[in-house]
Amino acid sequence: MPNSRGLLIGVLALVTGAVVALDAFGVINGPINRALAQRTYADEATVPALPQSGQVVPVLNPSTTVKSPAPTTAGLTKALRRVLASPSLGNDVSVVILDGQTGQQLYARKENKPQGPASTAKLITGVAALATLGSDTRILTQVVDNGSSITLVGGGDPMLASKPNPKAGTASIAELATTTTSWLKRANRTSVVLTFDDSLFTGPTSAPTWPASYVASGIVAPVTALQVDRGKINPPSPARASDPSELAGQRFAQALKVRGISVKGTVKRATAAAGAPVIASVQSPPITDLVEVMLTDSDDDVAEVLAHLAGARAGNGGSFAGGSATIQKVLDNFRISRDGLVLFDGSGLSRSNAATPLTLAQVIYTSSRSKDRGLRSVLSGMPVAGLTGTLTDRFRTASTRAGGGIARGKTGTLTGVSSLAGTVVDRQGHPLVFVILADQLTAAGTLAARQGIDRVVATLAQCGCQ
């Protein structure tokens, strides 16, 4: 069916939301750290209801209507029987497949069983961040004048870098120092006392359920509202500073000195005075871009900051607990099942996290069908099988190649856990949402499970399953 396969890519682009279209959302809503944009949770009226008792949800945008038949439960059961029986998937694999057009559940296996989601939890974080912060919001890092001192104020930009990177569109300490220096010299000030303010985030900087080795080995940085180069001491080395905010303050002081501004004494933590005038600022890419980076690269640092920001915006606190509480509320507002959901972080690093395949599938479906196009960055941010992000080196074998370029998915991997959640278009041109969780693997079997999961997705791509 050459015409049908040609249609597949077009359908996938429509379902997941085109990246080019998302770039149109570029309005700046204002500083997160000084006055969080007054945006409520996504209006329930903009969210398509999930099927209840066999009801079918109407397609919101007629242009995405696909006339191809959906797979049947019997057809999927027959097609998946052998690949799901693979020993590589361990003794406890859960699966759910939804019709990507209607949201109807087409196939399920332990769909309501809470399991370790690993990094597929980032899908939930992405929806919560977009719904709470606003998809076009940019995060400001500012310098304010406190009279006798100047203060570097962190707004939670997870991609703030030491040097400019025009291609990535990220903010830099260098740019901020240049603007600050210009203001100081106009005021005939060549010597300053410098402090830094990271008070937007509260509570512990590491999740209580994380092993100490996560930070020590550079897997993730302590979560603070002010960090540069993701808290790395000597990039690209993964080693992280024990206090990323202090490191950012020191980097800023160095940048000022290079530009002829003397910094007196030690750079210390302080709280900026209320109403202190802003003398310089830089801004992050929009939240949609941050969500895409988080999902494509499975970036743990970006995930934790987004969860903290959502908690701060919602009034629950810029903390691990605040982020988790906000995520729960957002799912309720979207009418997404959160039965059995337990989240101790926003990245999925905690082995104490739990989510059902059904929750993850509903997150993906809701993102693809919402009238809020910003939410579709959850879809466009998922890596393309065999081509981008954490799926670049997957779907390359004879038994999995059928899914290459046809599927998108968010990966999840911890020792003994392997998961993949995403979208795929079947042979008939019909969009599907899938979630596959396997969390009882031997340590040596984690990588083998990826191949087994990829075979399941490739089977869906090849299947008419009528």
What is the residue-averaged pLDDT?
86
What fold name goes in the CATH topology slot of the largest domain?
Beta-lactamase
How many domains, as an integer? Answer: 2
Overall 3D form: elongated
CATH architecture of the largest domain: 3-Layer(aba) Sandwich
Query: For the CA atoms, what is the radius of gyration?
Result: 23 Å
Oligomer: single chain
As residue ranges, the low-confidence spans are 1-63
With strands numbered from the N-terminus, the spatial order across the biggest sheet is 2-1-10-9-8
CATH homologous superfamily (4th level) name of the largest domain: DD-peptidase/beta-lactamase superfamily
Following the backbone from N to C, one meets helices and strands in this order, namely HHHEEHEEHEHHEEHHHHHEEEH
Described by strand count, sense and barrel closure, the largest sheet is: 5 strands, antiparallel
Structural class: alpha+beta
Q: Proportion of β residues?
A: 5-15%
Spatial separation of the terminal alpha carbons = 16 Å
How many helices? The count is: 13
Helix content: 25-40%
The first-level CATH class name of the largest domain: Alpha Beta
For the secondary structure, the number of strands is: 10
Task: Describe this protein with a few key phrases.
5-stranded mixed β-sheet; 5-stranded antiparallel β-sheet; D-tyrosyl-trna(Tyr) Deacylase, Chain: A; 13 helices; 466 residues; Beta-lactamase
